[in-house]
Amino acid sequence: MQKARSDSQQYEILLRNDIPLIDVRAPVEFVQGAMPAALNLPLMSDDERAAVGTCYKQRGQQAAIELGHSLVNGEVRADRLQSWIAQARQNPEGYLCCARGGMRSHIVQQWLREAGVDYPLVEGGYKALRNYALQAIDSHAKWPMVMVSGNTGCGKTILIRSLPTGVDLEGLARHRGSSFGRTIVEQPSQASFENNLAVTLLKKSHGAPVTWVIEDEGRMIGSRHIPESFRENMARAPIVVIEDPFDVRLDRLKTEYFQQMSAAFLSVSDEETAWKNYAEYLHHGLFAIRRRLGMERFQQFTIVLDKALEFQRKTGSCDGHLAWLAPLLEEYYDPMYRYQLSKKADNIVFRGDYGQVESWLRDKTSQAN
Prior knowledge:
By secondary structure, this protein is α/β, with parallel strands linked by helices. Helix content is 60%, strand content 9%. It has 17 helices and ten strands. It starts with 10 loop residues before the first helix and ends with a helix.
C-alpha cells in the first residue's frame, strides 16, 4: 500500500507544479473548464450524471446515491477502478478532484483505498482551484507590463515565447488572433483558457513581481476574451514596436501560415482530407474579411489563392501564395495596424527591428525582474 498523503488545500503548489489531477467529474463538466494537469477519468458518464441529477430533484439525495451506485456497478465499476488505479500508480504524487471535493471524489477515494491505493483529494475540488486561478490572474495582472506591437509577420509571438516573462496569450488561446488565426486544435473553453493563463503566470513569476511581456491584442483572441483585469492593465502599458522589412515579414508568414499549417493538416489526416481542410482554412480566413476588402478585391484574391493552392500541391512550393498575401498586407492588414497603433501613440516607448526590440526588452525586463 502506498504511504498515505493528506488531502490538500495547497492550490498554488498544485497549479504551479503541474501536480497531476484525476478529475472524476463527468466529461461535459470537464470540457466546460479544467486545469492543465488534469486527466478526466469520470466516476459517471454524462448520461449517468444526468439521471442521478434528475433522481435527486425528484426523490432526494438518498435515492440519487442509490441510483448512482446501481449505475456504476459490476464491470462498469471495475473498469473505472482499474483506470484510477493505473493513473494513481503512474502518478503517485497526484490528487483526486471532483467539482467541490465532495461525494464523488470521496467515493473514488474510498474505492481506491479498498483496492489498496491511498490517494488524496483536493479539498474544495475544481471550484476551489478555479477560484484560486481567477484570484491569481487578478493579482498578477497588477504587475508591470510591456506590450509588443507591430505589423503582421514581424515575429511578435516568436519574441514573446523567447522571453522568461513573456506570456503567449495566443498560444494559450490556441488562436493567432487574426482572421487566419485558427489552428488545427480547437480553442479551449473560456474557463480553461483562464486556468491556463493563471498557471502560466504562477510558473513564470515564482511568487515575486515581474514585468510581463505581452502581445498587443484586442479584447478577443478568436472566440476567447482576455480577462478584464488583465486587459485593463494592457491598455495602460508601454508599447514597443517591431518594424521589420516587408520581405522579412513575408518570409515569416510564408513559413507560419503556409508551410507549417499545410504540414499540420497533413500530420493529422490523409492527404486528400488534409488538402481539403487546409484550403478551407485559407478560404475561411479570406472570407471573414471580404466586406472590408470589397467584394471585387475578395474575388480577385480568391482566384489567386486557388491557383496558389494548386501550385503548392503539385510542387510543394508556397511561393504562389505571395501573389495574394503581399497585396493583402499592403491594402488591408498594414493600414489597419497603423490606424490601431496611432490611437496608442502616447504609449509607445521604443521602435526598432526584431533584434533591437529583443535587446531592449531583455535589458528592460532583466532590470525590473
